[in-house]
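Entry type: protein chain
Record version: 2
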Amino acid sequence: MVRSIYKGSKQIFETIFSQKGASFRYVCLVEWPRRGTWSLGFVSREVDGGLVGLEAGRRMYAVYVSTTPNPTSGYVFFADRDDVQILDMTVEDGLKLVISMGLVFPDRPARPADELAKAGHSRRVSQKKAT
């Protein structure tokens, strides 16, 4: 059942979000919907706070948190870069995790932020750790 839902949803999701080369850049963790509760999210782009009515020069991410098991519904919000923890996980693995309702994890666990930084990982990584 999960496989059929995943395949159909993946096709829809890729079609909607891959127009003109636009796609999610990273998989991330954000404290959502409240502090101490971590949700898997997808970073679509970096934005200047001035574009969303906040102070100009404020470095933020546009983050999409989808609902399970339908990844085409969810929430878009803007978070300061320091409040977003980028994971060493492919977008496809992140989608599998969401669509499977947390049942299907990537073959390898996401590496902690400090381990990625030590390894010289090319993605910007927050120094905060998920609890």
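Comment: Residues 5 and 11 are 10 Å apart (CA to CA).
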